Amino acid sequence: MSARTSTVRPARPRLILTALASCGVLVSISQTIVVPLLPELPRITHRGPADVSWLITVTLLTGAVFTPLLGRAGDMYGKRRVLLIALGSMVIGSLLCASSSELAVLIVGRAFQGAAVAVVPLGISILRDELEPRRVLPSIAMMSSTLGVGAALGIPAATLVVEYSNWHTMFWICAGIGVFDLVLVLLVVPESAVRTRGRFDVVGALGMSSFLVCLLLAVSKGSTWSTTATIGLYVAAAAIVPLWGWFELRTTSPLVDLRVSARPAVLFTNLAALLIGFSFYANSLATAQLVQEPKWTGYGLGGSIVVSGLCLLPGGLAMVLLSPVSARISGARGPRFTLVIASVLMAAGYVVRLFTSGNVAGIVAGATVVSAGTAVAYSALPALIMHAVPVTETAAANGLNTLMRTVGAAICSTIVVTVLTNVTITQAGPGPNAVAPALSAYLMVFVIAGVAAVVAAGLVLLIPVRRQAPVHLEGTVGRT
Prior knowledge:
The protein contains 19 helices and two strands. By secondary structure, the protein is mainly α. It has a two-stranded antiparallel sheet.
């Protein structure tokens, strides 16, 4: 391993943070902007709902696969260099989606966009390497929260574009901002001198990619594919894990250092990240659909797609405002304490949602409380990870943590869809009967998501308490 070779700090820390945060928000927005468009895509592409759902699935798959791979590549070959590659992938994907209505082209474009999720863990690692210690904690809190901020702001922004403009405009805007961010990174962000020596673990990368593809396809497509195919994917995923783990423990430069990942501080943080990602995504999915349910259901508000998107906007603004607060709490009490408080706040938000699903103000209040908890949680997660791993592995370790949030979101999507499509009510009429989710289906989703947040808090409490936890995350090699 190689350590920092210079003590010179950049003179423009705010510009570096601004550039990287802009990249993070853009990439996060690009993951969610297609959600409001899903009801219209079968008509636009002349394909069935199962086909157009690949526009979500393929982004999930490529994001899950490339986030840990590009994180490891950044540790080895230069984080800024790999960051530019990830941003370039986002721009290419946006241009493909902006220039075509063919489903095949859109799927390829969304795959390129998904690969760009690695921007966030790479940005976190650059901040740790380049900023002076007192700026590291608040900066990584802001960078990590861009995953939630972008998701919370992306849906409202996309609903406005879909309602009042051509849907291609969303992707043209993403491509334009992506080019701007590329130039900004080239001008402002330095290349890190902190590198990991060794050869890239190609076999480990293939093994992890195969496992993730099998697992996430089974999770996301299990409800529409045959039982045999779904079980086969789960069996394949289960068979790959021990073989991949055996190889990773014996290779000299593993893609994932399983010995480090098995440390309680890393293991329980990653498991908590999965549950927090689950809990946050349930908030976005349920809110966007709940507001649009028809009035004949007895609880529905019959809101438009724009109204449903705007209900998520206060939560996005709360995430922006609370990220610095999270850093201050972590600096004073430690990120472990912060993550527990955040998880409890998310659970409290779902308690609010259980009793306020009949009016817009109550829905917005509950959703905003959950988003506030998410902001604090997302800001604390990377600090916990970086307290527990060597500085030369921060991009890979944060990539794995981001992956866990993505897997949590994927599992959440499947469970929410399953609940809302199976617990329904019917309105009889002269024509075909109208079917909608029952109010109890939404309440069930809120209970599941709230329990996930509580379990996350319990897992965080299992993380060993550091007697002398560093406040500023100095960049020393091998800090544990």
